[in-house]
Design brief:
Shape: globular
Number of strands: 21
Structural class: mainly beta
Distance between the termini: 28 Å
Strand content: over 45%
Order of helices and strands: HHEEEHEEEEEEEEEEEEEEEHEEE
Number of helices: 4
Radius of gyration: 24 Å
Helix content: under 10%
């Protein structure tokens, strides 16, 4: 897999030496908080023709570190360290066409994961394999993305390919190993109409993961649980069945109304459907569960940009739904198990609605976000439920300035608070094992908590006029304090060169 990464870098190398701007405007358009007001629209590759006025290329060595005094969610562990090498380019081929690309390689560790022995837990939950031992996990990740967009008259056309390969593994019992391949293709189009671009993008995804767990110690008879949500498991096929794989597919469509002038109305509407089937390898790919995920997002707003100031007001509503079917298998004939029926046993609904207001004047930007989050998950029989809701607010300030002809600084600070307003749990505690009961109560303790966040960072870019290459470094830290008495610390460090 390392040979693949070096091949990707070789393909990108011609881009790394392309001419890049050093003007202040080029730096501001890439790093200003203002960019977030149109980041959703740039998911359409056709609109990448207007993503930046100037080309750029960066080579970066970065590392992210997280430590929680106690894991807020046991399946995600108590922290990680993730060093990564990355290359990124945006090149204007002609006045009307652009290409862009990105390649990265990361190799890190996740600490103290429990009840999770697969990669991409956020993607596949609740349909994972798990045990109560867990442990530290090695993570190796390769990523490549590339795209092309062109403008012809009033039409903009573009396409993009993203590919991720990843393996997560342990070198001590339980020796889990997951290998992931994840391919996404996008095709987008947009048309200029008056002051606006009207755009549509279609996306397709193919996903596969193989996952197995081995025990080499004396207690190698310990089994794995085929989890099905809220502490439940598919008992019939839990135990010694430790080799599974996932097959996923899905698609998405998004529509955008974006001003191509200094300001105007903003509309973004997206809808995505994905499904992930868990199959038991040793029983002729017997399907155990199928997870259906639906994601919807609506953003409405207005933004205005002048010579010295910028203003934006955006409203958003996100809805994320998961539903998991359990496949009821009949009596086997040899190694074949007929599927008799499917039962939708697990459901999750998650709403996030809020608003973002931004104001910028010269080197300063201030952004205020506020909203309401509601999360509810249920298991049909025996009835189980966990739910919580929060209101949250966040204030961010940024100072982005050229100190002199050679040095540019990007300094920001952020503070926020998320307050729990409601929570609920229903569990058949009398019929639960002690370990599952402890696991569920642990996660619920942090779901119903309130959180205070603080974050700050600085990035410095140095490039004298006589240099064709610039140097930069970035340092950022974030802290989260939980009303349950625990805390989380984050640290980000990166150094690199820019063209």
């Amino acid at each position: 897999m390392k040979r693949t990464f070096y091949t990707i870098l070789a393909l990108l190398w011609p881009l790394l030496w392309a001419e890049a701007a050093t003007a202040d405007s080029a730096y501001v358009e890439r790093h200003s908080l203002w960019r977030q007001t149109y980041s959703e629209a740039l998911q359409n590759p056709a609109l990448m023709t207007h993503a930046y006025q100037q080309p750029f290329t960066e080579l970066t060595l970065r590392c992210d570190y997280r430590h929680q005094s106690e894991a807020f969610q046991v399946e995600q562990g108590s922290g990680y360290v993730k060093p990564e090498l990355a290359a990124q380019s945006y090149i204007r081929l002609t006045p009307s066409s652009v290409v862009w690309g990105e390649a990265s390689y990361g190799n890190g560790m996740q600490y103290e994961l429990l009840y999770n022995n697969v990669a991409d837990f956020d993607l596949l939950y609740p349909n994972v394999i798990a045990d109560s031992l867990g442990g530290d996990t090695h993570c190796e990740r390769y990523f490549f993305a590339g795209g092309y967009a062109v403008e012809k008259g009033n039409w903009l056309l573009g396409g993009e390919l993203n590919f991720r390969a990843e393996q997560d593994y342990r070198t001590s019992d339980p020796r889990m190993r997951s290998i992931v391949s994840d391919l996404t293709l996008k095709a987008g189009a947009a048309r200029r109409s008056g002051r606006y671009h009207l755009g549509v993008v279609l996306e397709g995804n193919i996903y596969r993961q193989t996952a197995d767990v081995d025990f080499y110690g004396e207690q190698n008879g310990m089994g794995e649980l085929q989890m099905t949500g809220l502490g439940t498991s598919y008992t019939r096929f839990s135990g010694s069945n430790r080799d599974i794989f996932y097959e996923g597919k899905g698609g998405a469509v998004a529509f955008d109304l974006q001003p191509h002038t200094a300001g105007g109305w903003v509309v973004h509407l997206s809808h995505a459907l994905h499904q992930y089937e868990r199959l038991l390898d040793e029983y002729n790919s017997l399907p155990l569960t199928t997870l259906y995920r639906q994601q919807n997002r609506l953003t409405l707003g207005w933004r205005q940009q002048s010579g010295t100031s910028e203003k934006a007001l955006l409203l958003h509503a996100d809805y994320d739904k998961r539903a998991s079917d359990e496949h009821v298998a009949g009596t086997s004939s040899g190694q074949e198990y007929p599927i008799l029926t499917r039962l939708t046993m697990y459901r999750q609904h998650r709403w996030d609605v809020g608003a973002t207001a931004l104001y910028g004047y010269r080197a300063w930007h201030v952004q205020l976000r506020a909203g309401y989050l509601n999360h509810r998950e249920q298991y049909a029989y025996v009835e189980r439920e966990m739910a919580y809701s929060r209101v949250y607010g966040e204030l961010t300030a940024q100072w982005l300035k050229s100190v002199n002809e050679s040095l540019r600084l990007n300094i920001y600070a952020k503070g926020g608070y998320a307050a729990n307003v409601d929570s609920r749990i229903v569990m058949p505690y009398a019929n639960m094992s002690a370990s599952i009961k402890s696991y569920i109560n642990h996660n619920y303790q942090y779901q119903k908590a309130s959180y205070t966040q603080a974050e700050g960072g600085v990035r410095a870019d140095y490039q004298p006029a006589s240099w064709s290459v610039g140097l930069y470094g970035q340092l950022a830290t974030a802290w989260q304090f939980c009303s349950a008495g625990e805390q989380e610390a984050n640290l980000h460090v990166s150094i690199g060169i820019s063209f």
